[in-house]
Design brief:
2 copies of one chain form a homodimer. By secondary structure, the first copy, chain A, is an alpha/beta fold. Chain A contains 15 helices and 16 strands. In chain A, strands 4-14-13-12-11-10-6-5 form an 8-stranded parallel β-sheet. In chain A, strands 1-2-3 form a 3-stranded antiparallel β-sheet. Chain A has a 3-stranded antiparallel β-sheet with strand order 7-8-9. In chain A, a hairpin with a 2-residue loop joins strand 15 and strand 16. At the A-B interface, helix 13 and helix 14 of A face helix 13 and helix 14 of B.
Chain lengths: 380, 380
């Protein structure tokens, strides 16, 4: 089985569809829980199954450092190594190099950096990022893009966008060479791997348009919108998405990277986006912040100490079916591991259920109605 | 429903039976996972269901301090508060006061101590320990016993054993007064609660005999053997158990507190013990030590870095059915929460499955055969 995408329903610019990968299908719009080091923090794979996760995101930077892509390749690839047989998308490692690694130097060749773990020196190039992901054998690999330090003026954004384009060409060449078995020493553990290009260009419509058109010209299986949700107001992000999606092919999925709040997801779907990933449900869950249809609550708050109700009365997740806010507050207050597990489980269920409701509304031509009701319930 | 016990099969001094409580039945011999603060660290209640846990132990000291037995009583008792509808046993709080609390002073009245959390002063008496457990509403409450500082000479052990007996009388009086509704201000959230006495006496056969006989004279629903697994060699512990169980009524379950290794459990069953609790499977799981039929392994060891096999090829738990030693080692090495969850799940399954196999062997009159094979497989 190889990569494919089929739009089944549309309403305005919003679409429902099915993404096919070497490890099975994913209904879109889709949300990908983040399993940084080959595991989603606090929840097991069967917990993920129970909340309806259809695809995982995993981080190339972390897996490259530990346990290493060579080891994972020897063990047959990431799916087999982590015991997850559904689709996996890996990022390029670039974002972590730019945000986490130490003493990084960016040149046209790539990014030289020191590991945040042990200080060892490494070099991440477009080719290397492609090689690592080939060894990991994810179903969807991402090209290495430059993550610009903000704030940046338009010339700097343009220069970075153009470098990202040159890197995209190199990454694609490498991807095709790997597919043809022309790179000795690098194992392709997933012959059905697809590669996505990434549109950059900051908040500048002309740069986004240029980046989109030229990235499409390079020719990838599909395309992502990067460099958003980095501090700009939501409306600015929505405008950039609105402006960018028309330049991306309608018969390919569109992936908005690192976004966002539940509201962001609904707004982006309305603007033609099909795929999302974000650490909000997992990271906030571990910090005691829970998403509900009526907004977020902080479970550590004293007001919940004797609250017998579930986190969200409309939620059917294991946490809400079984436990009270009072118990969840206790678990958080006494620092039990179960606090992370149960909170993360609820938040992921909330995100995945929101996407499920979006897909269902699209199937019945009622996405706009859903969107209005969703915002009203949140008090917007 | 109220407390009861029925022996269904015997072989030598070993017995299989059924313990009945206000929250359902427990097959014996039984192992109780430790849910210190109303949760077993690293695993959810449904994980516990999946490994066959039939009864939980929870710690009175911790729950008394946070969130407090008053709050739990207002929420309808511990079962309801933590969302666990099967049997629960609570300890008296004494062990933690003696091992964890600060600046403790023991008098005939009880134990004065400061909380290890915030230094607040508290007093735990036989009556108070009974009151707290009444408010928690566990199915089985334990009397407050004195935990002797070791090493101690025989006169000190005798004095402590005799104090424990006097405390047992006071605890029983209080328990009966609570049952009759004669203690204003204390809520009994579980009318079917049973109370167990505790036999002390160190490693001295005559003291153990005296303690057993006199504790039985006080008259409890059943009896525990305390003060073991505190550093003495296994053979000494086995001898004390051998010597003590004949003085405990055959129609009541016998609970060996805080014991022990899988081998200890098998040996104690052979000597007439029916119930166990121990932190070994959970604590060691979090530290990367895994129990298998062929002995323990430390999953952090480099030798497992590329080991594709399961932790224990004979094990049918979720961890062993799904994940390799290589992945579990990776999770441990990168400090993922899932390491605690998957390791704990396996260890609890191992313990509960060992008890299941013991019960099955007793039903078929093959416990002695099981015991020999179990020890041989462990290399003894």
């Amino acid at each position: 089985m190889s990569f494919g995408f089929r739009v089944t329903h549309t309403e305005g610019r919003a679409r429902a569809g099915v993404l096919s990968t070497a490890h099975g299908d994913v209904e879109t719009p889709a949300f990908m829980p983040v399993g940084t080091q080959g595991a989603v923090k606090g929840v097991t794979h069967r917990d993920l199954d129970s909340v309806g996760a259809q695809i995982l995101l995993s981080n190339t930077y972390h897996l490259y450092l530990r346990p290493g892509d060579d080891l994972i390749a020897r063990r047959g690839g990431l799916h087999r190594f982590i015991g997850w047989n559904k689709p996996i998308l890996t990022d390029s490692g670039g974002y972590q190099v730019f945000s986490l690694a130490e003493r990084r130097t960016i040149t046209e060749d790539g990014a030289r950096f020191r590991s945040h773990l042990d200080g060892t020196e490494h070099m991440l190039t477009p080719e290397k990022a492609t090689d690592i992901q080939s060894q990991l054998g994810s179903d969807i690999a991402m090209v290495l893009d430059e993550c610009l330090a903000l704030p940046a003026d338009e010339p700097a954004v343009r220069a970075s966008m153009e470098r990202t384009l040159r890197w995209a060409c190199r990454a694609r060449d490498r991807f095709l060479a790997l597919r043809d078995g022309l790179v000795p020493g690098v194992v392709s553990t997933n012959p059905g791997q697809a590669q996505f290009g990434i549109v950059q260009g900051g908040v500048h419509p002309d740069l986004r348009e240029e980046s989109a058109k030229q990235t499409v010209d390079v020719g990838f299986e599909a395309y992502a919108i990067g460099g958003l949700s980095v501090g700009e107001p939501p409306e600015v992000m929505y405008d950039v998405v609105s402006h960018t999606t028309p330049f991306l092919p309608g018969d390919r999925p569109r992936y908005l990277m690192g976004v966002g709040t539940p509201e962001d997801l609904v707004e982006a779907v309305a603007r033609g986006v099909d795929m999302f990933d974000c650490v909000l449900p997992t990271r906030n869950g571990r910090n005691g912040q829970l998403f509900t249809r009526r907004g977020r609550i902080n479970i550590k708050n004293t007001q919940f100490a004797e609250d017998e109700g579930p986190v969200d009365p409309d939620c059917e997740c294991y946490t809400c079916r079984t436990f009270s806010r009072a118990y969840l507050r206790h678990l958080y207050a006494v620092n039990e591991i179960n606090a992370s597990t149960l909170n993360t489980l609820h938040n992921l269920h909330f995100y995945l259920d929101t996407l499920r409701r979006i897909r269902e509304s699209l199937r019945f031509g009622r996405f706009e109605t859903f969107k209005v009701a969703f915002r009203e319930q949140l008090g917007h």
